[in-house]
Design goal:
By secondary structure, the chain is an alpha/beta fold. It has helices at residues 18-29, 70-80, 99-104; strands at 8-14, 36-42, 58-62, 85-88.
Length: 105
């Protein structure tokens, strides 16, 4: 009998850092935990972010107005999440490939 891994929703709030965000997405893709999703919330007015190549478990939500706080932005991102667990995925941090697996364990 195989054990199903829980879905982990990674929440990434970003504003004006597309190069760093690209590195954060790469770190997400490289994770050893396979059952995962990345929700990116961008609230930089006038800027629409998109992936050059769509990735099934990575979603970007471009919001036309700035959130009043980081907490409000994270709450919005969490409302979009489907996971059993939540993981903050900062756009300016680099993560080891086992970050999600170790956290779930």
């Amino acid at each position: 009998m195989s054990e199903t891994k829980p879905l982990v929703s990674c929440i990434c709030c970003t504003y004006g850092r597309p190069i760093l965000l690209g590195e954060a997405v790469k770190c997400f893709i490289d994770q050893t935990h396979s059952n995962k999703e990345l929700i990116i919330v961008n609230d930089q007015e006038g800027v629409t972010l998109k992936l050059d190549t769509p990735i099934d478990n990575v979603r970007i939500e471009n919001v036309p107005e700035r959130f009043t706080s980081l907490g409000a932005k994270r709450n919005y991102a969490m409302s979009l999440a489907k996971g059993d667990y939540m993981c903050i995925w900062d756009d300016d941090d680099l993560y080891t490939p086992w970050r999600i697996s170790a956290s779930v364990s």
